[in-house]
């Protein structure tokens, strides 16, 4: 019974928005590893580096067969698509093959160049909160909170779409890390957008004509969170070449 009630609370996007909006009232922090990403963004914007030296990568694959189905790369700063491909497998499944260092090597950037976004988001949105006061951090749940009216909502599990959503989440993460007075207008604490998705209860319990409906979003401390789900994409800082890299965001060191 408790689990069913908990799942019902998590499914309500308005409750999640209240928790998210509360978190944006304060200035967020980021790990030291993220400073390298910020420096690279600045260098690209100043024309000192190519946009392809900081990219977001994503793939879609079958968990059962481990076969890769889609792969996409976009530039972190401009959003320009570099690769968007669907893989057609000519051969059947070989159960003797696997993803392991013995079979796959020399493709991914080293671990020190990978900056996952899950940990910084968790630190600012759920750290120190009890389990029933956290929001889910999977991409399909977090993206609508940050961009509640965006046309990409609901199109997850396509490599290119997930790259595009991840890029926007990364851009949104940078804003609360600034003092409130330095943020873009959309990210001022008093102007965070309201969630657009409605519950069926909105249609079953309409306010009377004499009542003014309160559209403000107050802090709700009852939301339960599933921390087992996370954003699939990572920021990868590639110090060599971005060519042939898979999984994440790459930064090329000249």
UniProtKB/TrEMBL annotation:
User: In terms of domain of life, where is this protein from?
Assistant: Eukaryota
Instruction: State the name under which the record lists this protein.
Output: Uncharacterized protein
The organism of origin for this protein: Fusarium oligoseptatum
**The organism's lineage?**
Eukaryota, Fungi, Dikarya, Ascomycota, Pezizomycotina
